[in-house]
From TrEMBL:
Gene3D superfamilies: Rhodanese-like domain (3.40.250.10). This is Rhodanese domain-containing protein. Residues 31-120 form the Rhodanese domain. Keywords: Signal. InterPro entries: Rhodanese-like_dom, Rhodanese-like_dom_sf, Thiosulfate_ST/Rhodanese-like. Residues 1-21 form the signal peptide. The keyword Secreted does not apply. It comes from Microbacterium aurum. Coiled coil: none annotated.
């Protein structure tokens, strides 16, 4: 029995360490009146729930680059999607396009936690 306990302790430590390592830290993002919050999901996803005040620009749409061209590259932006994949792609494209103040807030849950904005819709 003692041997079983000794074997169980390292296994529990590994499982606990893996569980805490998988939990991403949410970095707070200050959203002011000058900040534009951009939801880069599809219009259908946006309609199903989005952060209060967010604008929808679908990163997968053919006109995404044209939509970016209408934005002020010197303004502040917080970008999010469903899981963080599309937002990182959008942020990279924005930075390549000369945008200077863009924050990738990741998925909608992390973005809500980081910004303090509520999900509406």
């Amino acid at each position: 029995m003692r041997r079983l306990r000794l074997l169980a302790l390292p296994a529990l430590a590994i499982m606990f360490g893996a569980a805490t390592a998988c939990a991403p830290a949410v970095t707070p993002v200050e959203v002011t009146e000058e900040t534009t919050v951009v939801d880069v999901r599809t219009p259908e996803e946006y309609a199903g729930g989005h952060l209060d005040g967010a604008v929808n620009i679908d990163v997968s749409a053919a006109d995404f680059t044209a939509e970016l061209a209408e934005l002020d590259p010197s303004a502040e932006y917080v970008v999010y999607c469903q899981s963080g994949n599309r937002s990182s792609r959008a942020v990279a494209q924005m930075e390549q396009g000369g945008f200077t103040s863009v924050h990738d807030a990741g998925g909608i849950s992390d973005a809500a936690a980081a910004t303090g904005l509520t999900v509406v819709g």
